[in-house]
C-alpha cells in the first residue's frame, strides 16, 4: 500500500487536548484521502506527543479511512512500558530490537514516503466535530455559529430558536424548558479517550472546579462515565476526583462500549416526551470516536465529538447554543457569572495530578487476573464437547444459515440478471446506517420478531447485543432511523419501494422477503465513501442475507469493501466522473450485470457491464469497475464468501 508520511512539528499548546489534535488530524487525513493507505507519523513533534495521545491518534485510523496509523518507537514508548509494569529486561529488548530493525525514531532523518502531510502542533486549537461525521471539525470558538448554521437543515423554520422552547415538568416536580440544540446526552465514553490520563484528569479537575464554584449539570442532560480501563477509576480515587464527577452526574456505568455505540439507555421519560412532542433537534456530546447519524440515541438528531473536559463543560452549559469564549457557563450561588476559562485546569496542574495519581502498581494489580474473570464469570455453566450446542429457543445466539446447502466444491459464479434496487443512497453512508448497533422500536421488524418470540419490550436490548441472532440482525439491516433511501421522498428510516407490489412503500426487510420469494436478486446504489465508519461485519452479513448480490457506489471504505467480498457481495464502482444521477438512474430500473462468469476462468475482469432497463423499456448501459482488488479476494468471491472458503480449505486440505 501507499504510505502517507505525516510530519509533526512543534508542541501541543496549553489548553489544547489530545482530542483536539486527533480531530484536526482526522480532518486533514479525510481531506487528503487515505483509504487503503498506511499513515506513519514522524518528525520532531513526535517526541512531544505522550504515548497515550499517540494511542488516541492511532485508534482513530478507521475515522481517517486508513488501513493503519502508526507511530515509531522511541524513549516515550519505553517510559510507558515501564509505567505499565514491564520489566527493565523487556524494555531493553524492545529498544534493542527496534533499533536493530530500523523502527527506532530518529527525528533527524527524513524518511521516504509515498505522500506527505505536515502539521505544526502549536497551531492546533480546541475543537469539536459534528454533527454527524468525525472529520467535520469545528473550532470551539466557532461552535455556536456552526451549530446555528447547521440547525437549519434539521428544523424547517427560518429562526428555529426564536420560539423560546417547550416547557415541561421534570420527575421531581420542577419545571424547565427544552429547545433545539439542548444537550440531552453528555457522555465520557470510548476506549480512545478514556484511557488517556491527560484528558481524563482534565475532565475530573474541571468537574472539581465547577462544583467548588457551585455549578451543576442541567437537569435535562443524561450524563455518564464509561472508562476504557479500570486504572482510570483507580487514579480518579487516588486524586480525589470521583466525588466531583458524581456530583455532576458522571457516575460509572461500566467499562467498554456504552453511549458511543448506542447503549446510552433511554432518556428520562419526560425529556423524551417533550423532544418527541415538539420535534426538537437535540444534541449528544460525547468523547467517543464516532458520531454517525442515528448511532447514539433515537431521540437525538445531532451528535458532537469532544474531549472529556468539554463533555463536562457542555453538560454544565446544557446547550450547543453557547459561545465558550463570550458567554458564561453558569452562575455561582452569589449570582456571579462563571466562564469556562475560570474553571478550565491548567496543563501544569493536570500534569501534576497525573504524575501523582498514576503508578505502575495500578496496571499490574488491576489486570493480574484479567483472563481468569470474576466469580460470576467463572460460575457460568460451560457446555463441553467438540461442537457448539445450539439452543433453538435462544433469541441471542442462533445457528446462522451461511453453510446451508454448501457443497464440498464451489459452484461456478454467475452473472446477475433481473435485479431490483433495494436502496438508492447518497454519500457517506456509514456501516451504522447499514447495520445500526443501538436500540430499536417495538414496531420495527426486529421488535416485531422478538415480541413474537415472547420477549418483553423492556428486554429487547440492542442490535449490538443481538448480533449472535441473524434473524434480528437481518431485520436491522438498513434500519437506521436516519437512513435516507432516495427511492422514497421525504422519508427517513429503513423503508423502500417494493416493486413486487407495484412500488408500494415497505420496510426494507419485508421488501427483501418479497423479492426473495419471487426469486428476484437485489442491488444497492450508493455515492461516495460507502461503508465508512466502524469495521462492522454485520453491515456486510446483513446485506448478503437480505439477498443483495451487488453494490454499485462511487467509492468505498476499504474495510467494508473487503467485507462485502467476504460475504459474497460484488462491490462495483462507477467510472470516474459518473454516478447514479449522471447516468440517469433513479432506482426503479431492473439491472443485469454481465462479465461475472470470467471469474470462473481464474481471471478477475477489470470492469463488468451493467444494463439498467427502465419501466418504459428504455435502457441505460455502462461499465462499472469491479473492486475485487487482490487474487485472495477473487478466491473468496468464487467460494461465495470467506467463511465458505475457510471451511473448504480445512476440509479439502
Q: What's the arrangement of secondary structure elements?
A:
Elements: E1 3-9, H1 18-32, E2 38-42, H2 51-58, H3 61-64, E3 68-70, H4 75-83, H5 88-100, E4 115-120, E5 127-129, E6 137-139, H6 143-151, E7 166-169, E8 175-178, E9 183-188, H7 191-194, H8 197-212, E10 222-225, H9 230-239, H10 242-247, H11 269-277, E11 283-286, E12 302-305, H12 308-317, E13 330-331, E14 337-338, H13 340-343, H14 347-357, H15 360-366, H16 375-378, E15 416-424, H17 431-434, H18 445-452, H19 470-476, E16 495-498, E17 504-507, H20 508-517, E18 522-525, H21 537-545, E19 548-553, H22 558-566, E20 570-573, H23 580-583, E21 590-594, E22 607-613, E23 619-626, H24 631-638, H25 642-652
Parallel strand pairs: 1-2, 1-4, 2-3, 9-10, 9-11, 11-12, 15-18, 18-19, 19-20
Antiparallel strand pairs: 5-6, 7-8, 13-14, 15-21, 16-17, 20-23, 21-22, 22-23
Helix pairs in contact: 1-2, 4-5, 8-12, 8-14, 9-14, 18-19, 19-21, 21-22, 24-25
Amino acid at each position: 500500500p501507499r504510505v502517507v508520511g505525516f510530519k509533526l512539528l512543534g508542541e501541543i499548546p496549553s489548553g489544547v487536548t489530545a482530542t483536539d489534535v486527533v480531530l484536526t488530524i482526522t480532518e486533514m487525513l479525510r481531506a487528503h484521502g487515505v483509504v487503503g493507505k498506511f499513515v506513519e507519523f514522524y518528525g520532531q513533534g513526535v517526541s512531544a506527543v505522550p504515548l497515550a495521545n499517540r494511542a488516541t491518534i492511532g485508534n482513530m485510523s478507521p475515522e481517517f479511512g486508513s488501513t493503519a496509523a502508526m507511530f515509531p518507537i522511541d524513549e516515550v514508548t519505553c517510559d510507558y512500558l515501564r509505567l505499565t509494569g514491564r520489566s527493565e529486561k523487556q524494555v531493553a529488548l524492545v529498544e534493542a530490537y527496534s533499533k536493530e530493525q530500523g523502527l527506532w525514531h530518529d527525528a533527524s532523518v527524513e524518511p521516504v514516503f509515498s505522500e506527505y502531510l505536515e502539521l505544526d502542533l502549536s497551531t492546533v486549537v480546541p475543537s469539536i466535530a459534528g454533527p454527524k461525521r468525525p472529520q467535520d471539525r469545528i473550532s470551539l470558538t466557532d461552535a455556536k455559529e456552526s451549530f446555528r448554521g447547521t440547525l437549519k437543515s434539521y428544523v424547517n423554520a427560518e429562526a428555529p430558536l426564536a420560539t423560546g422552547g417547550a416547557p415541561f415538568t421534570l420527575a421531581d416536580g420542577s419545571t424547565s424548558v427544552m429547545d433545539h440544540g439542548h444537550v440531552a446526552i453528555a457522555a465520557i465514553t470510548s476506549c480512545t479517550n478514556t484511557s488517556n490520563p491527560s484528558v481524563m484528569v482534565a475532565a475530573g479537575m474541571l468537574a472539581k472546579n465547577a462544583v467548588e464554584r457551585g455549578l451543576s449539570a442541567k437537569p435535562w442532560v443524561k450524563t455518564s462515565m464509561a472508562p476504557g480501563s479500570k486504572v482510570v477509576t483507580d487514579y480518579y480515587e487516588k486524586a480525589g476526583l470521583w466525588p466531583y464527577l458524581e456530583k455532576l452526574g458522571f457516575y460509572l456505568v461500566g467499562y467498554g462500549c456504552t453511549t458511543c455505540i448506542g447503549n446510552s439507555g433511554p432518556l428520562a421519560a419526560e425529556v423524551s416526551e417533550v423532544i418527541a412532542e415538539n420535534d426538537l433537534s437535540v444534541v449528544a456530546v460525547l468523547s467517543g470516536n464516532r458520531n454517525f447519524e442515528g448511532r447514539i440515541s433515537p431521540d437525538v438528531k445531532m451528535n458532537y465529538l469532544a474531549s472529556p473536559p468539554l463533555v463536562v463543560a457542555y453538560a454544565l452549559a446544557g446547550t450547543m447554543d453557547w459561545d465558550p469564549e463570550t458567554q458564561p457557563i453558569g452562575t455561582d450561588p452569589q449570582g456571579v457569572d462563571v466562564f469556562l476559562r475560570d474553571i478550565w485546569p491548567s496543563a501544569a496542574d493536570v500534569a501534576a495530578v497525573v504524575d501523582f495519581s498514576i503508578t505502575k502498581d495500578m496496571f499490574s494489580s488491576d489486570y493480574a487476573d484479567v483472563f481468569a474473570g470474576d466469580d460470576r464469570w467463572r460460575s457460568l455453566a460451560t457446555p463441553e464437547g467438540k461442537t457448539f450446542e445450539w439452543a433453538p429457543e435462544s433469541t441471542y445466539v442462533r445457528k446462522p444459515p451461511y453453510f446451508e446447502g454448501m457443497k464440498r466444491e464451489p459452484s461456478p459464479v454467475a452473472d446477475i440478471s433481473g435485479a431490483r434496487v433495494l436502496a438508492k443512497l447518497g454519500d457517506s453512508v456509514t456501516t451504522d446506517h447499514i447495520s445500526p448497533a443501538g436500540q430499536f422500536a417495538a414496531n420495527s421488524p426486529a421488535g416485531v420478531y422478538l415480541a413474537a418470540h415472547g420477549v418483553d419490550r423492556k428486554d429487547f436490548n440492542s442490535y449490538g447485543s443481538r448480533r449472535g441472532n441473524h434473524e434480528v440482525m437481518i431485520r436491522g439491516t438498513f434500519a437506521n432511523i436516519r437512513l435516507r433511501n432516495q427511492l422514497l421522498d421525504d422519508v427517513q428510516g429503513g423503508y423502500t419501494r417494493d416493486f413486487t407490489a407495484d412500488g408500494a412503500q415497505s420496510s426494507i426487510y419485508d421488501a427483501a422477503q418479497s423479492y426473495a420469494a419471487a426469486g428476484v436478486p437485489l442491488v444497492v446504489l450508493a455515492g461516495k465513501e460507502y461503508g465508512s465508519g466502524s469495521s462492522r461485519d454485520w453491515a456486510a452479513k446483513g446485506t448478503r442475507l437480505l439477498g443483495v448480490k451487488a453494490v454499485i457506489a462511487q467509492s468505498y471504505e476499504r474495510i467494508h469493501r473487503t467485507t462485502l467480498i467476504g460475504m459474497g457481495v460484488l462491490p462495483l464502482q462507477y467510472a470516474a466522473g459518473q454516478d447514479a444521477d449522471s447516468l440517469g438512474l433513479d432506482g426503479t430500473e431492473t439491472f443485469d450485470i454481465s462479465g461475472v462468469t470470467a471469474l470462473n476462468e481464474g481471471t478477475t475482469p477489470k470492469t463488468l457491464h451493467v444494463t439498467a432497463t427502465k419501466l418504459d423499456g428504455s435502457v441505460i448501459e455502462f461499465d462499472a469497475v469491479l473492486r475485487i482488488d487482490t487474487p485472495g479476494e477473487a478466491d473468496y468471491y468464487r467460494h461465495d464468501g470467506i467463511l465458505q472458503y475457510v471451511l473448504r480449505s480445512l476440509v479439502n486440505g
